[in-house]
């Protein structure tokens, strides 16, 4: 399959009381399997909302989102979760690790939810891949921001996703740590062919991706 993600005329409208806010307006693009793409634009332009729609975390108001040939719009919550489990990895700017679980347990959670086997040894392998084999028993508060982001990467890799969405993956990290995290993302793309879609303010990171989609006020203003 050459196209892993296809958006056609996608809009998102948030309603609160009698007020409506059109956050995304008629967005269309396709992303090739195995490619790397960044989504850039000013704060409030709709980037996070767009990423959530692409990843099946949220639904568009209008238009269609097709991920790996599956049209997400018509799916119920369970079906959406199944698509995410099978194809999608997601990393968040603020890591979203569970504070009461160790690094190892955080990586194991989605594997456990998927009913997988040998999860402890596989989670240890994943932590090793991100350079944190020795830190599995540490809790998130005992880890630096960069280490927490690497745990969240290990967690996102746990289903060997076809496509990885990353929302400001370097947003809370210093330059040196950012470099390590970015290298891990691109290693995954090169070695496993994982499609990479990143929302970023980091122009150095954006310049490393094959394509840049720029949005402003919920519309695409430039796409390479
Ligand atoms: P960006 O990631 O580019 O900063 P967002 O997608 O986070 O932009 O937000 C775009 C706009 O949508 C903002 O005005 C934000 O306040 C609004 N927004 C985001 N999520 C919601 C929500 N759940 N309900 C209402 N408005 C929202």
From TrEMBL:
InterPro entries noted in UniProt: AAA+_ATPase, ABC_transporter-like_ATP-bd, ABC_transporter-like_CS, ABC_transpr_LolD-like, MacB-like_ATP-bd, P-loop_NTPase
Q: Which residues form a coiled coil?
A: none
Show the GO cellular component annotation of the record: membrane protein complex; plasma membrane
- Stretches assigned to the ABC transporter domain: 5-223
- The superkingdom listed in its UniProt entry is Bacteria
Q: Which UniProt keywords apply?
A: ATP-binding, Nucleotide-binding, Transport
Under CDD domains, the record lists: ABC_MJ0796_LolCDE_FtsE
Question: What protein family is recorded?
Answer: Belongs to the ABC transporter superfamily. Macrolide exporter (TC 3.A.1.122) family.
Q: Which PANTHER family match?
A: IMPORT ATP-BINDING PROTEIN
Q: What is the protein named? A: Putative ABC transport system ATP-binding protein
Q: Which organism is it from?
A: Dyadobacter soli
Q: What is the lineage of its organism?
A: Bacteria, Pseudomonadati, Bacteroidota, Cytophagia, Cytophagales
